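Researcher: Please translate sequence to structure tokens.
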Amino acid sequence: MSATVPLNAYLILSAALFVVGVAGVLIRRNVLVIFMAIELMLNAVNLTFVAFSRFLHSMDGQIIVLFVMAVAAAEVAVGLAIIIALHRNKASVNVDDINLLKG
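Model: Translation complete:
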């Protein structure tokens, strides 16, 4: 007896995670929280890829997930370095305090 989770459940969970991530980016002012919300959105997309890969019996989605995870790891390394540099210069991680591009 095997109980399978339907594709719709994965897609609904992925959509919910993505919406939470978008809300985190739009509502929060802390750079670290925004950074984590972006990671949540990437993981929501990864869940969708894996779900479709499983239900279509194809490895393409899982290969794309590996690529997305590699890009996310690089993003974390560069992003955290930028956040640390901003914190050292501005002594804040609030988005409203970071106005380096204003003329």
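Researcher: Any highlights?
Model: The chain has a mean pLDDT of 91.
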